[in-house]
Each structure stands twice: as C-alpha cells, then as structure tokens.
Write a sequence for this structure.
C-alpha cells in the first residue's frame, strides 16, 4: 500500500506516523471548556485571539489561550493544581518542544506552526498527564 | 474481508502471518494496543477512505482538512488503550471525525477574511457594544466559576453541555442531558449563583 496518496488515501503517511504507544500509561486530561470570541468582520483575520481551552485531570487544570500571529500561533496558559514543580511539553506530530513553567504556573510558547498539538505535564512522583489533541 | 466484527476470533500475536485485511477491527485494535505496527496499518488502510470522505463533506480548506484528518488519527492512537468497544471502531471514528471537522469548520468560519468593501456595509447595530461585551464576558466568567463549584461531576458535565461550553462545541442543551439531570443541575447552579457574593 505504500506510496498511495490519492484522494481516498490522502494523509496515509501522517496517519501511519501517528502510531506511538509511549503515552499508553499516561493520564488523559479531558477538555472541559472551550470558548472563542464571537465572529467579527475583519480585514485581517490572521492575528488575534482564536480560542480558549481548559483541560482537567484529578485536580490538575490546564488553561490555554491560542492566538494567531500571521501564519504562526502562540500559546499561553496556566497550570493549576497541587504540585511544587511541573515540566511541560508541547507535542506536535514528530516533534516535542519543552517549555518552562514559571513558579506561578504560567507558561507561553510562540512561533508554532499551525496543526495538531497536545500538551504533556510532568510532575515529580506522578504519572504524566497528557491533553487530547487539538488544532492551533 | 471482515469489517468490524464482534469478537477476537483471531488472536494475533505480533508477527503473525495473517494479513491485516483479513482480521476484524477488534483484532486489529488489540494488535495495535500490543504495539504491532502492521495492525495499525490495517486500521488506517481500512478506515482512512471513510475518514477522508467525512472530512471532505465538511467542505474545509485543504490545509484545515489535512489538520483535521491528522488529528483524528492522533486521537485514535491516544485513545487506543481506552476504547471500550473495539468492534465499534468504525462508528467511533465516524463520530470523532465529525467532531474534529466540525470544530475545525467553526474555527475557520470565525476567522475567514472579509472583503474590505463589505466592511463599510456591516451594520454596526448588529455588533455588540463594548459595555455589552464586558457584561457578557463577566456573566460567562461567573457562570464558569459556579459550574466549577458544582460538586457532582455529572452536574458539571451536564452544566457545560447545557450552557454550550462542552468540548463538543454544541450550542445549548442536547438529548444527551436528561431532563431530570438538567433540572437538578439548574437548581444547584442557581443556588450557587444566589449564594455568590
């Protein structure tokens, strides 16, 4: 089947590349709220606030704000919960970006290409928590 | 070629010579859970045409469609160990594809460019004034806080669903939220809002 990428099988390579069992034991944070600004007529729809998301898992919360900056996206957010230190990874298909989380739980990352994204939060002595995939 | 299937009639150890196309969805899911890339390939080859057809039916741009389809497969990979009915994989994929594409379409619709000439024709009366915008936002934030104070997770889920804040992106109540549950949730939500300072 390799090499088939016609209409019906478009995206086959990306679909095959999605196979990865490393997070099978991670806890999954569920999307509990999603809000977006109301549509407004604009000459430049490329910039600005796109969406706000919230994920929760066992007392850990992750509030995210996605903004558009021309062809790129930026992500800022707040990790909340009972922990002394958290590490955060922004996962894209085929790559991972490690992001520093401030003492107050805030973080931000800029210059992201559009496309699917998931976030993993690591806390000392606990299983990692990963969010579901969403597009930015 | 078994499509879907009801049980694990062919328990396939990794490296089994049985061609994936001859296995049921349930067998392929179990194989993929064990880490067999051939089983995953079997799932992709069997269901990708349906996922693509659904994505095309949403009339997304090529880039949005590509993102949505990729998100579906990343989601399936993530949910693989948690799928409760592997034999219903096809309907699970159909539902998730529609959800992902619907969200992508709504996101694109909010940000589609407008002809500059038509901006001057926009009726300013239809746009929210700044005061209403701020009040709406405050009301929404207050509701969010009240939902967060509901102690029963079922009430929280029902409230998010009822208020159109759930991840499905639907507006308003759905049949998924039973009438009794809605009434109970609204009572508790009202009490919390009344008790708020």
């Amino acid at each position: 089947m390799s090499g088939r990428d016609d209409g019906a099988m478009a995206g086959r390579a990306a679909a095959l590349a999605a196979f990865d069992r490393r997070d099978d034991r991670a806890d999954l944070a569920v999307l509990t709220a999603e809000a977006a600004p109301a549509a407004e007529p604009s000459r430049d729809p490329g910039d600005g606030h796109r969406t706000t998301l919230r994920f929760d898992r066992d007392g850990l919360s992750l509030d995210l704000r996605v903004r558009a900056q021309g062809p790129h996206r930026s992500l800022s957010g707040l990790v909340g919960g009972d922990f002394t230190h958290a590490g955060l990874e922004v996962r894209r298909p085929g790559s991972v970006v490690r992001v520093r989380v401030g003492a107050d739980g805030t973080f931000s990352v800029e210059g992201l290409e559009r496309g699917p994204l998931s976030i993993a939060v690591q806390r000392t002595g606990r299983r990692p928590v990963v969010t579901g995939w969403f597009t930015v | 070629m078994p499509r879907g299937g009801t049980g694990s009639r062919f328990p396939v150890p990794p490296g089994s010579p049985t061609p994936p196309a001859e296995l049921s969805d349930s067998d392929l899911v179990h194989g993929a859970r064990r880490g067999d890339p051939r089983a995953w390939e079997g799932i992709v080859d069997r269901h990708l045409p349906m996922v693509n057809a659904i994505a095309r039916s949403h009339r997304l741009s090529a880039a949005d469609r590509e993102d949505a389809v990729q998100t579906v497969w990343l989601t399936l990979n993530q949910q693989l160990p948690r799928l409760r009915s592997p034999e219903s994989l096809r309907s699970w994929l159909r539902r998730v594809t529609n959800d992902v594409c619907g969200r992508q379409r709504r996101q694109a619709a909010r940000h589609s460019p407008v002809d500059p000439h038509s901006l001057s024709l926009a009726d300013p009366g239809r746009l929210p004034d700044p005061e209403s915008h701020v009040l709406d936002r405050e009301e929404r934030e207050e509701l969010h806080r009240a939902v967060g104070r509901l102690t029963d997770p079922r009430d929280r889920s029902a409230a998010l669903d009822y208020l159109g804040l759930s991840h499905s992106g639907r507006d308003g109540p759905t049949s998924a939220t039973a009438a009794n549950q809605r009434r109970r949730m609204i009572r508790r939500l009202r009490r919390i809002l009344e008790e708020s300072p």
